[in-house]
Amino acid sequence: MILQGMLFLSLAGLLPTAFDEAPRPANGTVRQTVLASPRSCSLMQAQKSEQELHRMATMVRCLGGKPEYAKILLSAGKEFDIDPILLAAVTCVESSFRPKVSSGRGARGLMQLRPIVLNVLGVTDPCDPHENIMAGAAYLRTCFDRYAARPEGTFLALAAYNIGPGPVEKLTRSDAAERFVKKVLSVYNRFTDSPIPIRQKGSGLSVTKKR
């Protein structure tokens, strides 16, 4: 349902184990190369995933959220190709990781999704952390895609997430959007290995997740 909603938004606007034997040299010795086995590769991947989960859980805990949100953020980041640290930063700024919070304009849940976003993405329970974060990541993905060709794409995408998509002039002139972007990037820069300079109304950089 969320993927179908994303499509609607877009239209309206996401080796086996082996010893390789080399040719035998003239002196009769044999050179062999050991390749990594599938089992060792799986183990290394599992260890990497565990480290990422631990790191994300530590970040969420530091920001006042529940560690179990870390797995959802990582899944959403992978699903929608967005750095999960950025998703955590947006969640922190939007709701301080409070799943049942609502704004005066009807935005609800961890990522403060507006009614129109909830409806289009088919969110049935805005207070459910998994459903809310996945929908928030889907919506943010459409914002990134919409402004991907712009040099200030990161600023515009985050601004659009906060106040709604629109002309570049609207987003760059919004003081509210500028404050939001600065807050998000301030949190993001505390935890990422690749901090983004916070510039006046636009960073010009991208924080989409690297594959």
Please describe what this structure looks like.
The protein is globular. The chain is built from 9 helices and 2 strands. By secondary structure, the protein is mainly alpha-helical. The two termini are 24 Å apart. Strands 1-2 form a two-stranded antiparallel ribbon.
Tags for this model:
211 residues; mainly alpha; two-stranded antiparallel sheet
The proportion of residues forming helix, as a percent range, comes to 55-70%
| Count of extended strands | 2
Shape: globular
Query: What structural class should be given to the helix and strand makeup?
Result: mainly alpha
Output the radius of gyration.
21 Å
Distance between the termini: 24 Å
Strand order of the largest sheet: 1-2
Strand percentage lies at under 5%
Largest sheet: 2 strands, antiparallel
Number of helices: 9
Q: What integer is the average pLDDT? A: 82
In the predicted model, the low-confidence regions spanning at least 5 consecutive residues are 14-25, 27-33, 201-206
The SSE string, one letter per element, is HEEHHHHHHHH
